[in-house]
Amino acid sequence: MMRLLASAHPVHHIVIPMTLSKALLAQLLGLIIAISLIPLLPMKFSGLVTFLILQSSCAMLSSILLRQPRWWLPIHLVFLPCATTLLSLQLAAHWYLLIFIVLTLVFWGTIKGDVPLFLSSTAVVEAVSQVITQESAQHFAELGAGIGTVTVPLAQQHPQLIINAWEKAPIPWVINIWRSRHYANSHCYRSNLWSCDFSQYDVIFVFLSPAVMPELGVKLRSTMRPGSLLISSSFAIPDWKPETIKQVNDMAKTQLFCYRIADTNE
Ligand SMILES: C[S@@+](CC[C@H](N)C(=O)[O-])C[C@H]1O[C@@H](n2cnc3c(N)ncnc32)[C@H](O)[C@@H]1O
Q1: Could you tell me which of 114, 148, 149, 242 has the fewest CB atoms within 10 Å of its CB?
Q2: Which of 11-15, 157-161, 177-181 is least confident?
Q3: Which residues of 6-34 are buried (b: 16+ CB within 10 A; e: fewer)?
Q4: What are the boundaries of each domain within the chain?
C-alpha cells in the first residue's frame, strides 16, 4: 500500500495551476492596493520608489494570506522592482528574451510548485560530511542538488563515497555536472526526484520546502532501506520523529533533521 502511495504524487498535478494563479493574484493585489494607497500619501511620497515598496510589500502580505510557501516572499519582494529596473535600462529586445530564458532554465519548475534554487551554507556541508563519516556511508544521494553546493565538496572530502544527485532545472544541472567533472565518485542526473529509487543509499540529503515534506515522507519511508538515514535541511517531515536535530552555526541557523528509517514490517 505504501509503495502504491509513493508512486503516485497527485499534489503536483493540483498545485501547478494553483501556484501560478496564487502568485499572479498576490502580484495583482499588491498592484491594486498600491494604486489605491498612493493618492492618499503626502506629495513627497508619491514617487515610483514608494509605489514599488508599497506594491512589493502588499504582494508579500497577499502571498502570506494566500498561504503560498515562504520561498515566494523574496520573489514577490523583488519581482516588480526588478522588472521596472530592467525596463528602465531600455535594452535591446533580445536581452529581455535572453534574461527570460536564463531565469526559466534556472527556476525551471518553480511556477509549477517545485522548490526554487536556494543554496546550503558551508557549515551545512560540514555537518553533512560529519554525518557521512559517523555513518561510514558508502552511498549518498541528494534530491534537488542545485549547482552542487553540497555534492561537490563531499565528493572531494570523501573520495570513496558514491554520490548520486538529482536536479531538474537545466542550468543548475549543467553547473553541477561541470563542477563535478573532476570527481568520478559523483554523478548528477537531470531527472525528477519523484521518479527515483532510493533503496541503495545509506544517507540521503534534501533541502526542499515544507510543501513537499509530507509527500516526500511517504515516498522515502516506503523506498529507503531500513537503517538508512535521511537528513532534511530546515524542514521537518510532519509526524516523523527525528533521531537527532543538528543545529548548524550558519547565518540562517539551519537545523538538520536526521531521521533513521525504520523497518516498515516492525
Ligand atoms: C532549495 S534548492 C537546494 C539546492 C542544493 N540542494 C543546496 O542545498 O544548495 C532546491 C533544488 O531542488 C530542485 N528541485 C525542486 N524540485 C525538484 C524535483 N521535483 N526534482 C528534481 N529537482 C528538484 C530545484 O531546482 C533546486 O535546485
Answers
A1: 242
A2: 11-15
A3: beebeebeebeeebeebbeebbebbbebb
A4: 2-90, 122-260
Q: Which whole number is the average pLDDT over 38-44? A: 84
Query: Ligand 1 in contact with 146 (CB < 6 A)?
Result: yes
Closest atom of ligand 1 to CA, residue 149: 9
Strand partners, 259: 230
At residue 10, the pLDDT reads 44
Q: Is 169 in the pocket of ligand 1 (CB under 6 A)?
A: yes
CATH architecture of 122-260: 3-Layer(aba) Sandwich (3.40)
Q: How far is the CA of 100 from the centre of ligand 1 (A)?
A: 20
Phi, psi for 60 (deg, rounded to 5): -65, -45
Start-to-end CA span in the chain (Å) = 15
113 lines ligand 1 (CB under 6 A): no
Distance 207 CA to ligand 1 centre (A): 7
Distance CA 189, CA 122 (A): 23
Q: What pLDDT does 16 receive? A: 52
Which of 164, 168, 179 has most ligand 1 atoms within 8 Å of its beta carbon, as the pocket-test mutant? 168
